[in-house]
Amino acid sequence: MLRTRAGGVTCKNMIQTETQKSVDCPCGCERKVSKLSGQIKMDNSVPYYSAFLMNDGNGPNLWVMLHTGSWEPYKEDCAIIIQSIKEKEGLRSYLSDQNESPWKNQDIEGLHFLSRDEVLAQKGGKEWVFEIHDYFVENQNEVAKFVQ
Ligand SMILES: [Zn+2]
Questions:
Q1: In total, how many domains does the chain have?
Q2: Which residue range is the domain that position 134 belongs to?
Q3: How far is the CA of 37 from the centre of ligand 1 (A)?
Q4: What is the pLDDT of residues 17-65, one digit of tens each?
Q5: Cα of 63 from ligand 1 centre, angstroms
Q6: Which of 11, 69, 99, 132 has the most neighbouring CB atoms within 10 Å?
Q7: Residue 43 Cα, ligand 1 centroid: separation in angstroms?
């Protein structure tokens, strides 16, 4: 079931961060970056998340993968990728395809990475994704500090 901000659902979400590691930057620049993972406890679902806090010298470049469960018409679990770049006006976030992301070489069994077009094709899909994403960015301490 999709929920949208327009539906007026009260947020009682909670973010549980399970791992926080320093890893090689997935872009190949040889910097170390933080990689976080855990879950976001929503009212009706518990998406898992994974995030890379990258900065190749042009400011914060945040990548979040939300592992959301099944998403029609796919029977298998699905994942959605969002990139956020810090600009003068603030943080700008975009849906991203897997092949443009730090997860481009990951083939995870039983997990379908939704393309940007697949998310946009679902009524209310984009709103649902960004409701979770924006909540995560504002309320996960490390991420909120990173994009400030
Ligand atoms: Zn890099």
A1: 1
A2: 11-146
A3: 19
A4: 999 999 999 998 999 999 999 999 877 778 999 999 999 888 999 999 9
A5: 12
A6: 132
A7: 35
Over 8-77, what HEC string results? CCCCCCEEEEEEEEEEECCCCCCCEEEEEEEEEECCCCCCEEEEEEECCCCCCEEEEEEEEEEECCEEEE
| Ligand 1 centre distance from Cα of residue 93 (Å) | 18
The 10s digit of each residue's pLDDT in 92-148 is 999 999 999 999 988 888 899 999 999 999 988 999 899 999 999 999 999 999 999
Q: Give distance in angstroms: CA of 61 to centre of ligand 1.
A: 9
Question: Does the residue 52 lie in any domain?
Answer: yes
Q: Specify if 106 maps to a domain.
A: yes
